[in-house]
């Protein structure tokens, strides 16, 4: 059969697509064991967040924005992840992250325990703990680490090293007495006592307050939350005399290739949003790069989680500017890992735990400011009542009204502190239940195909590292 001439073949869009075809054909699956695995989790990073952040960063670079490409979008293998919990259509981070690190789905609100447990009931948890890929890797002699811009005891990072019937049991003061009497242990204590293999070699994040007693003030003047009187930071230092504890950027910068073990807690609670980060704490890209430097000294390899935890918090606050800025910072961390690793021996997975109710509205012109009011042909788009609206809004959240909707101005909505309008009034915006993206490269990355259950992510990691018998 003869080919047909395409008169559009000299069009730039046509030629770019043909180049992409050639790139795809040249890409060959790497079907062998990996030495290392890095799991990047953008907390709350919905597909809409990726799209809007792409435009946001492209526009910051002087482009119209839509044509820009994030680093994560260059990874060759892509799939969709179904995020529901076993008891919830719209999930939370504890159940979703537990699925990714353990291989089984579970309920909302519980940390690396199967779904036979009732949240908050310690006595139902015993015997139902699920072993995580981080525990398995440590037992095999690999180095293990976890990095987060949230409290390091928060739901997503906690799933790698802890088992808890309630995600809120970050320190002893948040636990009911009955749970403590039944032998359950708070999440911060589990981090310090993690004893699989050689323990956790790298821990970077926020959350000093979870490790300090109420009688101790940290270097930034914040007191601890623990009521048991224990200073878990000191206990960690005593347990690991070869390790280095740091609490600010100056100490972080002094960590080097000779560092054997590092514990960095850079805020009393969560680390700052990227838009607000000063010189006193490292970026997520810097933490990722340093973690790889320390972990990669192990000839048996490593496994690392990197969580951009504050994308989620900005969405809960219906503050799209900070959500997008943190997504871009997360993407820079992915680039740092791509540059520091070899795809022949390191599996990189980028995904989200769940989505949010953020949406992109209207029929805006190409290049319209993504955080601005919607415009078509240079004129503001308006609703049936003659009011302007933004391209970005939320299904629910703080900036909803019981009555007539505000008619916003461009100056208002372009402020980094603006809270986008929402339909349903809530003090804190909720998650949403749609699928999220998976991007991957490296050994066994080609196994990400189609729409998969979220717990499948563990099974690709397992296939790559040969963790289970």
Automatic annotation (TrEMBL):
Q: Which residues form the active site?
A: 93
The family annotation for this protein states:
Belongs to the alkaline phosphatase family.
Q: Which residues cross the membrane?
A: none
Q: What cofactor does this protein call for?
A: Mg(2+); Zn(2+)
Q: Which Pfam families match?
A: Alk_phosphatase (PF00245)
Q: Where does Zn(2+) 2 bind?
A: 43, 312, 316, 354, 431
Q: What is this protein called?
A: Alkaline phosphatase
Instruction: Provide a Gene Ontology MF annotation, just one.
Output: alkaline phosphatase activity
